[in-house]
ABC transporter ATP-binding protein
Amino acid sequence: MHKIAVFLKPYKKEVTIGPIFKLLEAILELLLPTIVALIINNGIGKQDSAYVYRMGSLMVLMAILGFGCSMVCQYYAARASQGFGTSLRNTMFKHISSLSYAELDIIGTPSLINRITNDVNQLQVAVAMLIRLVIRAPFICIGAIIMAMILDFRLSLILIAATPVFGVILYFIITRSSPMYRKYQGKLDRLALVLSENLSGIRVIRAFAESRREKQRFNEASEDLTQTAIRVGRISAWLGPMTTLVVNTAIIAILWVGGIHIEAGGLSQGEIIAFINYVTQILLALIVVSNLVILFTKASSSANRINEVLAMTASVAEVPADAPAVKRDDAAPVISFRNVSFGYNTTGERALENISVDIQRGQTVGLIGSTGSGKTTFVNLIPRFYDAVEGEIRVEGVNVRDYRLEQLRSRIGIVPQKAVLFTGTIADNIRWGKASATRDEMMSAAAVAQAEEFITRLPEGLDTLVARGGHNLSGGQKQRLTIARAVVGRPPILILDDSSSALDFATDAALRRALNENSGEMTVLLVSQRVSTVKQADQIIVFDEGRIAGIGSHRELLESCGVYQEICMSQLSSEEAVQ
Ligand SMILES: Nc1ncnc2c1ncn2[C@@H]1O[C@H](COP(=O)(O)OP(=O)(O)OP(=O)(O)O)[C@@H](O)[C@H]1O
């Protein structure tokens, strides 16, 4: 919790002034039963109506003052809690953006969304309650006990005796509900995961007529969450009735003993009514305390989940700001892997094992291999989306770990397997690759990516709006735009990770021809499962179960590499293979 408390630092004024006004309100509230006692004893008892009016007016004034104090506190509580929530959310967002893929893989997107929304909201409410009620409720309890002691010490012993009973109930409920809240939040994450998979994959689900199964999966996750909520609710629900039971038992005892006192002449009627009022105040305050306990138990579990995110450090570390500028070596291979091995944290298995390869400037290199053989993992290590576990990777002669991340990534244009577009116009999307790109530059990038024709056919051309997730474009059109986006900045290294899978063979061939003609000094890495895509490359790297099974031209590999021969045989006729 204390790490998160720093976000309250800018709101010291609000956190101090708010409770002070709430205390003023509480003091006024505590005086009311005594005034009522005075009215009963001196006003009603002695038939002095002037006294009743005077004291009644005083009570109204005190109520108005109390209301004013409460409003001031409410204002400060809202300012502090909203400000706290906003800066916590912003910090989390900035921190999450700085994390590497490895950390994001561990927590997962649905859980991160829950933590940045639900959990922060939970803490926001806790901060507001902290200011409004955390001091007030115990103050009212203790204050009411003291006032009751002043009225009649012996009667107040009944109240003091009830305190440890309440303490035991509180302890029992906190220790049992706290671990359940953590479970509850885990299940909320699970529900969010199922929901996000369903919403993003809704077309696939319908296409496979799997709606019923998915509904069942959602219902199961929802039912699981409900059961946990009911279990935790069942425990917390004891708190209110048990508190009421303890306090009401105390009231009965007070009436019993108080009655004997009145008969004996030791206590006036006004005093016994004031006493009961104080006990009622204690009861209400204790119910507030019980609710606060539940709220803070939830908030502490949310705080742990937020701290978990904030405590994560990016495994792909940025170089220190004062590190010397890197000196690229034009004569060195543009990409060089030396004995590189890598495994994903989540699986513990090696996805790449002892990879060594040099790629020369201006080359077009094909990367081929069966699914899961490590091609994407290989290209993801070049812009440092992940860091190699062993070995060294150099880009233009410099170890990738010595570059500033932004500088390294500005040398590389990458087209990921899954075409991701953002809401905005087509031009906005292409400009992600070069913010200052002119319309001509965008159109020539589109021409290379074979997107020019479909863009010019659109009524608004480059200014056509791309719907959320690019839903108003076909799979092939989306892929072509992501290629144009990567090409527009003319990066020295261009990586196309299976980026032509949604293109027909003719467009795929035209794309490769255009890349060839326009690439100049650009080094192009073509990841594909299609032999026809990589066949003409200067060099082909064949992956097999995380290892390199062969490197060479199509002809060389056909003669020397068994894995490549197998891939060719499965895709090409024997004539095509030797062409
Ligand atoms: N984020 C990840 N977390 C854990 N394991 C992963 C992750 N991404 C890939 N893997 C695993 O690493 C291995 C290599 O995967 P990779 O994506 O590099 O294969 P690929 O050759 O590109 O396959 P494809 O052609 O199907 O894209 C596979 O066993 C895969 O299951």
